[in-house]
Amino acid sequence: MPQFLRNAWYCVAWLQELGEEPFGLQVLGEHVAVYRDSCGEWHALDGRCPHRFASLAQGRVIGDALMCPYHGLQFGPDGRCVLNPVDPEGQAPDVVIRHYPVRIRNGGVWIWMGDPALADEASLPPESAAFQPGYAAALLYFKVNANYQLVIDNLLDLTHAAFLHGETLAAAGDVPKHDFSMQGNVIHSDYRIEQGGVMPIAATLFDDDLCETLATMRWRPASNLDLDVRLHPLEGSNAQPLHMPSVHYLTPESENVTHYFAAIARNRKLDDPAEQKRMHDMALKAFTQEDEPMVNTCQSMMGTADLMAMKPVILKTDVAAVQARRVIAKLVKRELREEAA
Prior knowledge:
By secondary structure, this protein is an alpha+beta fold. Helices cover 19% and strands 34% of the residues.
C-alpha cells in the first residue's frame, strides 16, 4: 500500500470556483466529500455512506448535515449519523464516519488527512503575495498522471525550463545558476540568470528584451511549493521590475495520480482581461502540454513510483529534490512509528 504523510494539509479546491453543491475527490487513495453548511462553514467527511457506500458528494446539504443520495441518511459535521428518514421513529444508526479538519488559506480549501487532534494551522502554507492586493492571479487545476514526488522533483529543479518551456516559462537556452539550502524541513531551491531573455509569459509585462531573472522556490512538507519570480532591468534600462509570485499545491489522489492546484500572479496590468487570459492560457500550456506529458512519460518508463529503486543518476542540481524525498521518508517513518506505539 502506498505510504503518504497523513498529518499534513492538502489542498482540495480553489474556493472561488466552488458553488453551493457538495463536491468529492480522492485524497491519499481515500474518497472525501466536502460541503458547506447553513452557516457557510466548510466540512469534510468520508466520501462513502457506510450503508451501501454511495457517494456522499452526490448528496444534498440539509441544514448542517450532508444527506446520502441513496437512502437519505444524514451525517453531521463530526461524521455522526443524525437521521434515518426511512425509520418509523427517525432513529439514526449508531455510526460515525471519519471527518477531517478543514481550513481556508490562499484562496484554497485545505483538509488535514491525519489525526484531527494534531491538525496544526501553523503548518498551512504561508500567506502568498499572489493573493494580496496589488496582484492579479490566474488559477489552474489539472491532474498529473504520475506520483506526486515526481512532480515535486520537477518543480524543485527548474534547470529543465530552458529545454522544456522555451515557448512559455523560460527563454530558450538560458540555463540558470542554482543555489540550495534548508531551514528545518523547508527546502530552498533558488535560481539566477544574471543576463538573459525575458520569459515568454512575461513578454507583455516587461519593457525590455533582456533582464536579470531571480526565481526562488520553497517546498514544505508534504507537497506544497511557492515560487517567487522577479525580473530586474539591466543597468541603464528604464524598465520597471516585475514580480510574478506563484503557488503549486500537490495533492496525491493515488500512488500514480496527482491533483495539481496552481496560481500564478503578476503585479502589472492587474485589470486587463486580455492579459489575464494570456497568462492563464500560457501557464496552462506549460503545465499540461509540457510538464505533464514529460513527467507522465518518465513515470511510464520507470514502471514504478519508487524512483530511488531505479538507481537514477544524481546531478548536482538534484540536491533539492533528493532532500525533499528524504524529508518525506523521515516524516512518514516517524508517523508510522508513532501509530504503532
